[in-house]
């Protein structure tokens, strides 16, 4: 484990210092993804942001762990957490969230179904002050691989049930891509260990009265022989977690948006420092100019 060195990013939008100062933590839960995890992490590092990459290996047995240890030495991973027992995606994410030091946290699966280059787009509503959490929806028109009809029906039914209980109008509750204000995410009581994370975090965000946006994303889903793990049992579990999180589970307290976001505070500090440096340069040049114009006594 090493301490991430956050460096100012290249300006994504001219004149918006928030983009130069925001810090993003990407949490990647991994279980037996030896064929994809290295490509995924190298792709994540292509994202031009001040980035902290946190990888949680959830008891992999296929050689994934050895790959991750090598990638950590190559500085592709800032924080590597190794779990001896497979406890599920939700449990792995909670461990990663606790270690995150960024202002915004993004969830990234290790299977290459979601494109990390789309993460900055999902951050925009948060940086613009319009949202506290952003979901990347596979059903809003983004490019996608044509796959299982019944998976799509099941996803829509689960999203519908979740919407009925949360009073939201999401199109894709089960999406992996959730980008959330770090303080808000750490404020939520989360306990689901496996694929119940998606309905649980959605219920908690609704209970906290968080402002949620959806944006279209691309989706390159896998077939089962390519490594896809979700099956009908996970759908039944998701149904249970929707009911549990909305009716029986502990509720999230209302979250209040900070008056000044941490990246705004850093941007203001940087702007003041730059202005002070500019004044010092101007004073120095003025002093030199005055010295040059003094009469020379002969």
From TrEMBL:
InterPro entries: Glyco_trans_2-like, Glycosyltransferase_2, Nucleotide-diphossugar_trans. Residues 25-187 form the Glycosyltransferase 2-like domain. Pfam families: Glycos_transf_2. This is Glycosyltransferase 2-like domain-containing protein. It comes from marine metagenome. The lineage of its organism: unclassified sequences, metagenomes, ecological metagenomes.
């Amino acid at each position: 484990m090493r301490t991430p060195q956050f460096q100012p990013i290249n300006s994504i939008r001219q004149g918006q210092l928030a983009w130069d100062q925001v810090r993003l933590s990407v949490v990647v839960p991994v279980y037996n993804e030896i064929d994809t995890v290295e490509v995924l992490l190298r792709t994540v590092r292509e994202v031009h942001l001040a980035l902290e990459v946190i990888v949680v290996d959830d008891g992999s047995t296929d050689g994934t762990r050895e790959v991750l240890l090598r990638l950590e030495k190559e500085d592709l991973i800032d924080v590597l957490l190794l779990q001896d027992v497979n406890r599920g995606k939700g449990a792995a994410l909670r461990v990663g969230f606790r270690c995150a030091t960024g202002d915004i946290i993004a969830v990234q699966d290790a299977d290459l179904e979601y494109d990390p280059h789309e993460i900055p787009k999902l951050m925009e509503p948060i940086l613009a002050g319009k949202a506290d959490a952003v979901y990347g929806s596979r059903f809003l028109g983004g490019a996608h691989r044509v796959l299982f009809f019944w998976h799509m029906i099941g996803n829509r039914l689960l999203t519908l049930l979740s919407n009925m209980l949360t009073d939201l109008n999401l199109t894709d509750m089960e999406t992996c891509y959730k980008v959330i204000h770090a303080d808000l995410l750490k404020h939520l009581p989360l306990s689901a260990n496996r694929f119940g994370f998606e309905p649980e975090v959605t219920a908690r965000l609704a209970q906290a009265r968080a402002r949620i946006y959806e944006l279209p994303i691309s989706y390159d889903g896998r077939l089962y022989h390519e490594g896809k793990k979700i099956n009908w049992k996970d759908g039944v579990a998701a149904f249970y977690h929707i009911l549990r999180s909305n009716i029986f589970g502990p509720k999230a307290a209302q979250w209040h948006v900070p008056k000044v976001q941490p990246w705004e505070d850093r941007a203001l500090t940087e702007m003041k420092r730059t202005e002070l440096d500019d004044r010092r340069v101007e004073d120095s040049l003025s002093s030199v100019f005055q010295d040059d114009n003094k009469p020379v006594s002969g």
